[in-house]
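The protein record filed here:
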Amino acid sequence: MGYLLGRYEDISRDSLIEIQGIASIFPEEPLISEPVWNSIQNFYLTAAPKQLPKGLGSDSLQNTQRFKAKFPNYFLSPPSSTLVQFGSGGEIYVGDANTRNLFLFNSNLQLINNATVREGAVHLDEEEEDIKLTVMGSFSPTDNPNGFILALPKDGKRAPYLLIDSLQRPVHSSYADFNGDGLTDIVISEFGKWTGSLSWWRNLGEQNYQEELLRGKAGATKTVPYDLDLDGDLDILALMAQGDEGIYWYENKGQGVFVEKTLLQFPASFGSSYFELVDWNKDGWMDILYTAGDNADYPPIEKPYHGIYIFQNMGAQKFEQVFFHHLPGAYKAIIEDFDLDTDLDIAAISFFPNFAERPESSFIYLENKAGGFQPTTIPQSTNGRWISMDVGDPDQDGDLDLIIGSLAFEVVPPSPLLQKWVDNGIPFILLENTTK
């Protein structure tokens, strides 16, 4: 707060400015007087609780028999799988930040190809001819514009080519035609650090794109193209973190003209990490699945409000919370009928669980049973520090499998499990569904 108000008691202003374009957000002179600044600090120090209340928690987790763990025959030390994703043919893509590579494994988990793509491949859109890969450029927080969208031809005959570059830590991209011209546009979430943006990039043809700014703030995390008001124009739903946290609706007024409206707003301390749309109660209206759990504090402390949320669509673009499961450090959740009993179950990962008291909660499976959800885990839950996850049916047996990817650096505070993760070098685990 002090830096943004021009107060630099513990640091020099110049050290905060990585690129000249962000200098304006750090005032050269204080915007408030020292007595006022002292009163603000004293208010927080006096009013803040000594400790946060404990979360609801649960007894120690039992192991589920729903999934059988399978491991690749390839190891990375330290593993840093910022991307794990099933391909259309059952293959598995893995983006590793440490080696700066994109790896391709076949359905038997054998490495068949890899390519250097720079640090932090995080999102992959597989099309008939090309793969479009979103690369952060830096896993660590930065405002430097080192990120890009890279096209990888699948035929192997054409060279990879850049679609869009000079992006500030892009962490997600969505692809759709937003202005009805028949060309696929791109929505890019540039998370950044102090600065960043959410923009849709108008496809001009011939691999040219024009940026149209939606929100000029850091923290853009993920978007979902969806016609929320059912007027025939494709809207954009976006999750913002990094201070001004919430889920925002960019209403498409036609021809790609968007108006921002707030659907849900969260406290700046929530650590918003993921969202997606799901028809939770099967009423034909899309509800919102949301996780809060980003906890890279100094040091991180367990938060009672971290976990998995469902916000039900009440109509007229209004959403109300109808579900919460406490999961410290929740990073992503997937809702599917994993046991094929017609109701929806939840699989989730935590990047910041309580490693000292409950490390097994880094992966949980909530099976939907009469009377509520039964939380379980897998015996291999502590074999990695799970940051990425995907769902699919690579063996085409009719039930859904999972893949979870591990990232084992920048662990704060240091965990005794860290050396295990580094030594074992497991980049991902395939969780094969045993229902069929």
Q: What stands out?
A: The first helix runs from residue 13 to 16. The mean pLDDT is 94.
